[in-house]
Amino acid sequence: MATKHSRVAARVMLAPAVILLLGWMLVPLTMTLFFSFKKYLPLRGDSMANGLDWVGFENYTRFVGSSSFWPSVQATLVIVGGVLFVTVILGIVLALLLDQPMWGQGVVRILVIAPFFVMPTVSALVWKNMFMDPVNGLLAHLWKFFGAEPLQWLSQASMPSLILIVSWQWLPFATLILLTAVQSLDSEQLEAAEMDGAPYIKRFWFIVLPHLSRAITIVILIQTIFLLSIFAEIFVTTGGAFGTKTLSYLIFQRVLESQNVGLGSAGGVYAIILANIVAIFLMRIVGKNLDA
């Protein structure tokens, strides 16, 4: 049992890391809140005195009053929901397949997980130029082979294309987490159900899927945190056009257009609010599985 002296010593040793972590989070957040109430124009060469005028909530009303604000929120939620749906479904399928004995199983697992380590800009460029190019892309040649007209992926099917690109990058993460959960499943339960004559679908629905619920919850929570701030893939592929402008991309665009850091900071506060709303929703609806 830990003594009072050991607990105090542990807290003292943890204090520097905790203080550094809090500073890492609170300092940028405080500066964002500070600048959101200011008219800060450093890109125009204004001095600090002239470029830090107090404007109150003007930046907030100006940002939310933009005609692109609500469509960007909708695009953000559509991308997050689409990627989560694809990665969770395919992640379960791949996890079950990779758990089966096969020749070269280790190599196959490495190849499946490899896309997660590719930078978002690189993966977006590969998909844009190698696969989705309407003239020289592999998908264009495939369409021509079957006598069909190549599809302008990034303009005619921009949102599905973007979801496909991001899903390809995040699928290995979901597969890895779910594969770990599948390997921890007690095989005796499956064998007993099989001996009792339960078909595979029922064994999956009543035994495997409930066992994976905690892992699915973790995948959804972690991916949502990162997907709410998706930017690089949009910047490289569509540039925010064709209905793919997310909230983070809108913040970037507004700062460039107005050169007002205060306006972008107000957009950042809205992004924080959106992330917290989504997080609370997930913790209430999906996060209940963590307590099961």
Question: What can you see in these coordinates?
Answer:
- This protein is mostly helical.
- It has one domain (31-291): MetI-like (MetI-like fold).
- Helix content is 71%, strand content 2%.
- The chain has 13 helices and 2 strands.
- The chain has helices spanning 4-36, 58-64, 69-98, 105-113, 120-131, 138-145, 153-156, 158-183, 187-195, 200-227, 232-236, 247-258, 261-285; strands at 38-40, 52-54.
- A two-stranded antiparallel ribbon has the order 1-2.
What structural keywords apply?
single chain, MetI-like fold, globular, mainly alpha
For the secondary structure, the number of strands is: 2
> Which secondary-structure class do the elements indicate?
mainly alpha
For the terminal residues, how far apart are their CA atoms?
28 Å
Compute the gyration radius: what is it?
A: 24 Å
Q: For the record, what is the CATH homologous superfamily label?
A: MetI-like
How many separate domains make up the residues? 1
Following the backbone from N to C, one meets helices and strands in this order, namely HEEHHHHHHHHHHHH
The helix content is over 70%
CATH third-tier fold name = MetI-like fold
Which stretches are low in confidence, meaning pLDDT under 50 for 5 or more residues running?
none
Shape descriptor:
globular
Q: What does the main sheet amount to? A: 2 strands, antiparallel
Helix count equals 13
Using the 3D structure, state the CATH architecture. Orthogonal Bundle
The CATH class name reads Mainly Alpha
Q: How would you state the average pLDDT, rounded? A: 83
- The strand line-up of the biggest sheet is 1-2
User: Proportion of β residues?
Assistant: under 5%
